[in-house]
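User: Show me a protein chain along with its predicted structure.
Assistant: Here is one chain, sequence first, then structure tokens.
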Amino acid sequence: AMKLPISTSSNDVVIADNDYVDFCEDDRKHRPAKPIFPGSRCAGSLVSEVDKSEESFGAWGYKDSGFVLNIDKRGRRIVSMKGDRYRISGKPLSRLVPFLENEMNVTIDPLRTSLPSFVADPVIDLCEISDSGLEKLDRIATGGTSIYSKDRCRHGSGQSQADIFSIRRGSLQDRRFPDVVVWPDNTSEVSQLVALAAAENWCLIPFGGGTNVSHATWCPPKEKEPRPIISVDMKRLCRVLWVNKEDGLAHVEAGITGGELASQLEKFGVTMGHEPDSIEFSTLGGWIATKASGMKRSRYGNIEDIIKDVSVVGVNGILGQERGGTGKNSTKIDKSNAFGRVSTGIDLRSLM
């Protein structure tokens, strides 16, 4: 969970007499994960219920959105955005193709396939974790587990051109992917996963929005990492735990996407001010892990300037600076305190 400053937006909203709003009883934790591709753990895919729609596989964005190129009755090449998710959806963009051709010195032919055909069921190595191990994971991760090839492939890939082209071509046999994907629902489940992985000699790799273009979610080859690999999808940890408007602080779980965070904070007339290009899909935890920057950095700063404190799950428990905390390994926060400057050498926030 992260503590971050917030700023008042133009639409001021009174949130409560004591200026705190708690979301700890979020009923999302009682709902099952929504399948992105139908089926069970072995024959279908799971994804956090927070993703209101299906994500495209082998492309950026949601499955119900995307640019479509058609030829009208006058022979013009018209681009439009399918679906109704965005304000631009359905509007004809008649000048886009000529602009791209002129700027990139290429010819765009609507009748020519520019990318390989989509591979519906990518062929990758089988899961190396035993059935008994998978059962242990099932008992911990209430959000679901998956060994389906699409889930494993997506969680071992990013959004670079190389990633998308490999998925479209189905040329994934030489790549290593997570053996299983799990969706924990809260900090306690993450702690249990870390403890189980230590006992079973498994490797855990956290996964946020998967928007990286630097191969950050690629699994290391077995020569470097021989242990089975588990991808821990954090998107079910997506709650705004409290908002302190007076001190300009909010306590937020790491798996929340930028779009959801902005939407939640907007209800109370505040903003965190961080707006990367990937804000719709990337997560707070991913921003911290990659030291992300955004389009409003000149006013609000980069993510390291915005985050005030972090709590991190480790093998020996929960790590924290305990600024505003209530005791050793505690995840509770004393909401009467803001976070002042301290001098303690290398702090946990900087390490993360």
